[in-house]
Amino acid sequence: MSFNLSRHRSLIRRGLKAGFGSLLIGSLGVSLGATSAIAQLSPTREQPPLTLRELLERLNNRPIKPVAEPTLADPIFTAPPAAIPPDPATAQPESSIPLEDAESAVEQAVSLRLDLSDRKVYVQRGDTVEASFPVAVGKPGWETPTGEFEVFSQITEPGWTSPFDGAVVPPGRSDGPLGARWIGFWTDGTNEIGFHGTPNRESVGTAASHGCVRMYNEDIRQMFDMVAMGASVIVEP
């Protein structure tokens, strides 16, 4: 068989052209495939993030049945636990204070007891005498009334109006007829009787007044500070 070099060269050229075309087509196919893959991997617009349920559905390849949120009617909600009663064997006893101690712990009010025969007034807290002072009481015909009364007025450096001639001594003077202080405990609606100071020191300890109870100015000042409005006043014969 004879060898035709020209013919073989023509065939080789055709084969190279055909092979090169296949290579181009194959390369183009690979390029298109890669582009398609890239297109699939690269979203054209931003997608919202998947929820937990959507992720689980994709993993399980089936929808998940939603679970209802618990409500107050569900059995998992219970009332707050009640307080546990103490164990009698280990419980500490409550402290108790005897009645007499409780009564003594409460401060008792101050009261006044006037003894006309002794011509003394006693400042008492309960049954305890805290102070006593000499006094002048009503003279015959002007006796100091007896009985149980209470303090209804307290005045510092009181004024005075004479029941006989209407003479007036203005307040603010310790040397007035009523002295430095006034503690009223009796009235008939017009006249009043009470403890008061006096410039007549020599009368203290006697029956010399018109029903009031005279005291030394220093004593009435002290007693004035010890009593309060509404304090009980007991006047004994």
TrEMBL record:
GO terms for cellular component: extracellular region. InterPro entries: LD-transpeptidase, LD_TPept_cat_dom, Transpep_catalytic_dom. The keyword Cell wall biogenesis/degradation applies. The active site is at H196, C212. Keywords: Cell shape, Cell wall biogenesis/degradation, Glycosyltransferase, Hydrolase, Peptidoglycan synthesis, Transferase. GO terms for molecular function: glycosyltransferase activity; peptidoglycan L,D-transpeptidase activity. PANTHER family: L,D-TRANSPEPTIDASE, L,D-TRANSPEPTIDASE ERFK_SRFK-RELATED. Belongs to the YkuD family. This is L,D-transpeptidase. The lineage of its organism: Bacteria, Bacillati, Cyanobacteriota, Cyanophyceae, Leptolyngbyales.
